[in-house]
Amino acid sequence: MTKDGKQIRVGADIGGTFTDVAMEVGDAMHSAKVLTNYTAPEQGIVDGVRLVAERAGIALDQIDTLIHGTTLATNALIERRGARTAFITTKGFRDVIEMRTENRFEQYDLDIVLPAPLVPRNERFVLDERIDAHGNVLKEIDEAELDALVERVLAGGFESIAVGLIHSYVNGAHERRIRDALLARRPDLFVSISSEVSPQMREFQRFNTVCANAYVKPLMASYLRRLTDSLKAAGTTCPVFMIHSGGGIISVESAIEFPVRLLESGPAGGAIFAAHIARQHGLERVLSYDMGGTTAKICLIDNQVPKTAKTFEVARTYRFKKGSGMPISIPVIEMVEIGAGGGSIAAVDAMRQIRVGPHSAGSEPGPACYGRGGDKPTVTDADLLLGKLAADGFAGGSMTLDTGAATGAIERDLARPLDIDGTTAAFGLCEVVDENMSNAARMHAVENGMELADYTMIAFGGAAPLHAGRLCEKLGISELLVPPGAGVGSAIGFLRAPFGFESVRSAFLRLSAFDAGKVNAVLKELAEEATAFVRSGAPDAVPSLECTAYMRYAGQGWEVPVAVDVRDYAAGEVDVFRKGFEEVYEQLFGRLIDKLDIEIVSWSLRASSEAYPAPRVPRVEAKRRLEAAATRQMFEARTAGFVTATVVARTELAPGDCIAGPAVITENETTTIITDGQEAIFQADGCLLVRSKA
């Protein structure tokens, strides 16, 4: 805290290329980008915090709170470099995580290859016990068999153990008994049980989730402890919190216990950032576009709330097709993610077409233009050759880009194989990236029944403002907002997130046999669990509660989410649930089905502290049109040639200033490109409003 009582809060986001740090001192924001340290990721955060504190004139021991998000757990799953893990399950269910479900992600591929499970078959163990779907014990655990199983598992030298028994989402007593037996012999062993990690029906998804939690738990525990120790050694005394996949803040202790909740923590911060800007500007339909060094993410934000889901997939192996990845059953902000970032590597395939990603040059060695040993052409190299980036002043002046190296990489790997010039190859590379992103956005919108022409795009991340204008042209989006601090948007989003946690539970109930007592008991249990997580980080918070019941017609395979009030229900209030389901179902499918019973399959309850204030910002129209004081040559996609573009520093703009494209607006952490068909108007809150000249 400053001497005049201003709170000092820091958000830190580790990306594939850069580690972003944002420091909020009262109402003032300071930021920095440093290259991600792959050997010791925590050192990148310490270096970034030191740098931004120096810029803000703040001592490290004055920082009040640090909130962190990372893709470290996601990368460990994708690259299969987690802990050696054993899986214990009910006899007869050993192969569930290998057999998966009956769905085929490529219907007509006779040689389809399913992703390998995290735990190989010889490291999966069974116990002859059984609990039924109502939670009744059909077969007790035999203590002698359990002792022998524990002996075998411990003799295997595993770092982490996952326990997933059939129907444990209703009754987790047997899972807890196994955990107690393991820890009694080895108190330092990492043990994850599915009844706590993901207490939801559908055993494949639940078993896979608890295996993923156990697989990354030692890695994340080690990393988070090193991080807290390194920050203390550097001089900070503040508590450290983590952002989770659902967009809330939890304690480091909770994150160590449930690291699977961190899988999409970095991208979740970006969606929160975009939702905050949407509230400030009164926007009801927003397309969030986050492009960093490794990936690009798109999220639909309706009524100023990011779209959420209770399951998602990581590490899709077959052309990003749904079903080809690793399903994780946890609450998450739903988004589309593709391997298209500033560091994404381009190559020419067997059909003489340019392909970009999913592999990235990252920060080590980085794009060719970084001069750190990289020799593959990347999106950043193409942006440099096309005049979108300047060689000087990159990353706040901390780097000078090597134009010659970028030219050499693109000409060698793209231009010569295709028998074209380097500029055309660079243009083709960028067009492929932009087209891939626009296709992903269209598909995401279609899957959700939305028309993107009605949306406003909010772009952030180091690379997004470079490509957002062209992406809007492809998608028919007429307005784009580039917020202040866009280059470190996810880190700022961490500072806008509430303390929050979403508890999930499968508790099957048919409306024809409605049991108000069971409903009230489930809601109470969920509310107590979620509230406890919130108060572990914000002891004085009075959390708001939001509940969703996942419902379906009897006989259907999947459910629709129905919002329900968190309160005690009376025995005769079954129609409250029936009416809520029918409204949602008819909105989604256009008609109801007569004479079918309705089922509640599972529940989700979110507790969160008070939302960060977002005062409305009135729109500012153009007051002064800026003339070109400085210019440079930039490639314009619509005319397929170089044009003279106005160059303006964002810090020199005042509300109402209007810049007609083609133009380049520079700042420390990113660059915004205004195409020939667009103009930008500087808003009162520092946002750039980019819209079509038409």
Automatic annotation (TrEMBL):
GO CC aspect terms: cytosol
Domain Acetophenone carboxylase-like C-terminal positions: 518-682
InterPro entries: ACX-like_C (IPR049517), Hydant_A_N (IPR008040), Hydantoinase_A (IPR002821), Oxoprolinase-like (IPR045079)
Superkingdom to which the source organism belongs: Bacteria
Sequence ranges assigned to domain Hydantoinase/oxoprolinase N-terminal in this UniProt record: 9-182
One GO MF term: 5-oxoprolinase (ATP-hydrolyzing) activity
Annotated ranges, domain Hydantoinase A/oxoprolinase: 206-497
A Pfam family per the record: Hydant_A_N
Gene Ontology biological process terms from the UniProt entry: glutathione metabolic process
Protein name, per record: N-methylhydantoinase A
Species whose genome carries this gene: Stappia indica
